[in-house]
């Protein structure tokens, strides 16, 4: 228990820093770094960055770049090395502007996004050229008939390990098959490794195994009577070693590795479901957008221009006609007033039948001109409304742009967005690394150093197996997060395109209807204008005849 308390106290006193997490990210990405090292933080990050840049295999400078452990007092060589790194970052089009002094000072805020970008780009390159990573990455471009099939396929790819991991050690196979996911106690886990170690130390012949496969490779398990149990092996320890391995068991128990890995597995599975739903919605919107584009054509703006030109021409004709009718009306009214009945010296109207008849004829003409004038003014109002509808496009478009989206564009299949999985894998790996550093710093009992070191090696084997699993999960989770974000971006782009296209269709439909209505108004006004022009022409003839009679009458009256 003393070992467990020392570990807990150390973790409380020295929590992981952002710099530790950055180094851990480089370690998990396979950048040739050791978790336990005496190198400075600057040297670790420089070495990891150079190792990561070597992933740009198409860049000769990156492949030729080598790390040199430059002493801190050699400022010139350190600057030269940093400048070479910066040159390569420029060559590979890194979007983050990093300067040599950022590397020398280990500027975490500047280096972290750059390193994440470099690791992501090299991972994407490996997914095209590494068969194991390519097999996993192919999931993100496939289509599935159902969510369950998609998740099942993802988990099959996610849990498949590369040949290098499968053939790593006998301990890892024991960890994968007998420990991972079994909810064992720390003592049981240490016991499993202890039994496996004893198995490797035994002088075993082929007859000691229970089965063989077809090509003669020994498989299965060793006969039970040849293999001691963990408790039998633990019982052989003296009190000092017993206290030491119990401390290691308690430390394993306190790390809750099985629970942490199970939680990560479930979160990654949820992310796979969320990715499938995002992709499903993306493909649905894409199909809808294709249908919209295939059924619609761009609106011909020349139709609006021609309609407006014709509308203006008709408006000008109506205005001219209105002025002419107004002049006719005023002229007729003046003559009619001049022919109004006269009064004698007694104040009574004189009865002149001819004059009365001409007066009444002018009155009828005046009424007819008045009617045509009102119709002309009505045509002017209709033309004005048509122009208002046509010129009101900007306000109408603004209302359409502010309209609510259709349900297809409002629905959200993505109810879970866990963007901390990679960070939590790094944090867990960092915490385990801190535990290892503490365990390695605890002095071993001098008189039983060999036995204690044997248990320490077993503990380290378990930790290495856990970190091997985390290393495999790190790049897979990172690739999942990348594709998850990219798919979301593509979905939002398609949604935006769909919103624009839907609104454009509405605008085009409304504009088409307006142009139809305006053209109908133009036709109606033109027809009515022609008709009233004929009537007005006849009225002018009648007016001229009445005017001639009134002139003759006036001449006779003057002659008399």
UniProtKB/TrEMBL annotation:
It comes from Caenorhabditis elegans. It comes from the Eukaryota. GO terms for biological process: Golgi to plasma membrane transport. PANTHER family: COILED-COIL DOMAIN-CONTAINING PROTEIN 93, FIDIPIDINE. InterPro entries: CCDC93, CCDC93_N. Residues 20-121 form the CCDC93 N-terminal domain. This is CCDC93 N-terminal domain-containing protein. Pfam families: CCDC93_N.
């Amino acid at each position: 228990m003393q070992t467990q308390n020392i570990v807990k106290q150390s973790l409380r006193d020295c929590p992981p820093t952002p710099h530790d997490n950055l180094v851990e990210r480089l370690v998990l990405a396979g950048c040739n770094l050791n978790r336990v090292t005496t190198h400075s933080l600057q040297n670790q990050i420089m070495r990891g960055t150079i190792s990561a840049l070597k992933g740009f295999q198409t860049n000769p400078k990156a492949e030729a770049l080598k790390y040199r452990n430059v002493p801190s007092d050699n400022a010139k060589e350190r600057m030269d090395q940093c400048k070479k790194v910066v040159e390569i970052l420029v060559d590979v089009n890194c979007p983050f502007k990093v300067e040599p002094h950022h590397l020398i000072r280990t500027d975490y805020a500047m280096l972290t996004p750059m390193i994440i970008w470099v690791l992501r780009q090299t991972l994407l390159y490996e997914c095209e050229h590494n068969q194991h990573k390519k097999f996993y990455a192919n999931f993100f471009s496939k289509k599935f008939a159902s969510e369950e099939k998609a998740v099942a396929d993802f988990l099959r790819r996610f849990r498949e390990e590369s040949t290098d991991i499968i053939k790593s050690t006998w301990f890892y196979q024991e960890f994968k098959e007998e420990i991972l996911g079994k909810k064992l106690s720390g003592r049981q886990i240490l016991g499993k490794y202890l039994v496996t170690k004893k198995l490797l130390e035994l002088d075993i012949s082929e007859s000691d195994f229970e089965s063989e496969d077809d090509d003669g490779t020994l498989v299965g398990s060793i006969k039970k009577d040849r293999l001691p149990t963990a408790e039998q092996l633990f019982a052989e320890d003296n009190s000092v070693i017993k206290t030491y391995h119990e401390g290691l068991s308690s430390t394993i128990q306190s790390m809750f590795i099985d629970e942490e890995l199970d939680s990560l597995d479930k979160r990654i599975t949820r992310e796979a479901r969320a990715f499938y739903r995002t992709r499903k919605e993306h493909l649905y919107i894409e199909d809808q957008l294709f249908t919209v584009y295939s059924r619609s054509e761009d609106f011909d703006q020349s139709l609006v221009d021609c309609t407006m030109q014709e509308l203006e021409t008709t408006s000008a004709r109506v205005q001219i006609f209105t002025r002419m009718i107004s002049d006719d009306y005023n002229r007729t009214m003046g003559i009619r007033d001049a022919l109004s009945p006269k009064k004698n010296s007694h104040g009574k109207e004189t009865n002149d039948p001819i004059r009365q008849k001409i007066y009444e004829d002018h009155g009828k003409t005046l009424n007819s001109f008045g009617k045509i004038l009102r119709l002309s003014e009505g045509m002017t109002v209709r033309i004005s409304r048509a122009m208002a509808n046509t010129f009101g496009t900007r306000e109408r478009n603004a209302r359409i742009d502010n309209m609510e989206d259709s349900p297809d564009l409002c629905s959200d299949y993505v109810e879970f967005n866990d963007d901390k999985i990679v960070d939590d894998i790094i944090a867990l790996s960092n915490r385990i690394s801190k535990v290892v550093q503490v365990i390695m710093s605890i002095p071993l009992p001098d008189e039983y150093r060999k036995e204690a070191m044997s248990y320490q090696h077993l503990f380290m084997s378990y930790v290495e197996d856990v970190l091997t699993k985390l290393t495999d999960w790190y790049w897979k989770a990172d690739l999942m997060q990348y594709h998850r974000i990219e798919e979301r971006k593509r979905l939002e782009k398609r949604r935006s395109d769909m919103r624009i296209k839907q609104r454009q269709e509405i605008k085009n439909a409304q504009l088409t209807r307006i142009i139809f209505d305006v053209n109908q108004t133009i036709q109606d006004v033109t027809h009515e204008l022609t008709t009233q022009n004929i009537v007005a022409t006849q009225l002018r003839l009648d007016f001229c005849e009445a005017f001639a009679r009134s002139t003759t009458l006036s001449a006779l009256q003057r002659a008399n």
